[in-house]
């Protein structure tokens, strides 16, 4: 019997990759994700390779996973892929304490983020 398979949320020309619990704040991660939104994947990979931000390496790995999903799972042409969506969301936050003067404590919040990248195959204008 079993239950029915859920329908695919993306169109046939799209592929997706996610990463959860990336150790940076969503605000910082969104700056890097904004670098690649709407670009062709080869240009986006080049931008992430030469970016000075620490988190760009993790974003590059997720983009490469989305490209591999498009190629292997959905038989899309890698040369015609663009980054159609790069969304960032909040995950959990570790809470720590730091000792301060006169017996007090100050809280330290270490946030984590989620990243979703969707690549889409564009049709050639001919």
Describe the model.
With 126 residues, the protein is α+β, with helices and mostly antiparallel strands. The chain has one domain (14-121): Ribosomal protein L22/L17 (Ribosomal Protein L22, Chain A), CATH 3.90.470.10. Helices cover 29% and strands 36% of the residues. It contains three helices and three strands, in the order βαααββ. It has a three-stranded antiparallel β-sheet with strand order 1-3-2, covered by helices on one side. A hairpin with a 5-residue loop joins strand 2 and strand 3. Helix 2 runs antiparallel to helix 3. The longest helix is centred in the middle third of the chain and has 17 residues, at 56-72. It is flat. The protein starts with 13 loop residues before the first strand and ends in a 5-residue tail after the last strand. The mean pLDDT is 94.
CATH architecture: Alpha-Beta Complex
| CA distance, first residue to last residue | 48 Å
Write out the CATH superfamily name. Ribosomal protein L22/L17
User: Do you know the CATH topology?
Assistant: Ribosomal Protein L22, Chain A
Q: State the CATH class.
A: Alpha Beta
How is the largest sheet built, in terms of strand order? Answer: 1-3-2
What integer is the average pLDDT? 94
Structural class: alpha+beta
Instruction: Tell me the major beta sheet.
Output: 3 strands, antiparallel
Strand content: 35-45%
Q: What would you report as the Rg, rounded to the nearest angstrom?
A: 19 Å
Domains counted in the coordinates: how many? 1
State the total count of DSSP E strands.
3
Instruction: Encode the helix/strand succession as letters.
Output: EHHHEE
Enumerate how many helices there are, as a single number.
Answer: 3
What general form does the structure show?
flat
As residue ranges, the low-confidence spans are none
Helix content: 25-40%
